[in-house]
């Protein structure tokens, strides 16, 4: 459920080339060279396309990966998951429900954790 958050043509035009590649084309940000990897600011991560609140910085943790990792969304139905079989592997992709923005993939850990490869 998107709670009224949605993708608009204007929002898509505001994306940088890198943001568009990651969010709309399921790309991956460069390891260790992305805006949120080493960001320790307190706040809310929102979908850059729709403005939908997605994650709280209080749920961010150091997973030892090159990308920011979060344990859970603010509201469970803010994100959707689907099986991703690209690159000869099976992973669980995570996206926003409002604008269907690509956010990243679940890590193969117990409990499951999210490694955000998108620019939320």
What's the layout of helices and strands?
Layout: H1 9-14, H2 17-24, E1 44-46, E2 53-56, E3 60-61, E4 69-70, E5 79-84, E6 91-96, E7 102-107, E8 113-116
Task: Describe the structure in your own words.
By secondary structure, the chain is of the alpha+beta class. It has one domain (9-116): Peptide methionine sulfoxide reductase (Metal Binding Protein, Guanine Nucleotide Exchange Factor, Chain A, Beta Complex), CATH 2.170.150. 12% of the residues lie in helices and 28% in strands. The protein is built from 2 helices and 8 strands. The strands form 2 sheets. Strands 3-4-8-7-6-5 form a 6-stranded antiparallel beta sheet. The protein is globular, with a radius of gyration of 13 Å. 32% of the residues are buried. The model has no long low-confidence stretch (mean pLDDT 82).
Protein traits:
120 residues, Metal Binding Protein, Guanine Nucleotide Exchange Factor, Chain A, globular, alpha+beta
Helix/strand structural class: alpha+beta
- CATH fold topology: Metal Binding Protein, Guanine Nucleotide Exchange Factor, Chain A
| Low-confidence residue ranges | none
Major sheet: order of its strands? 3-4-8-7-6-5
Total strand segments: 8
What general form does the structure show? globular
Q: How many structural domains are formed by the residues? A: 1
Q: Estimate what percentage of residues fall within beta strands.
A: 25-35%
Q: Mean pLDDT across all residues, rounded?
A: 82
What series of H and E elements makes up the topology? HHEEEEEEEE
Radius of gyration: 13 Å
Largest sheet descriptor: 6 strands, antiparallel
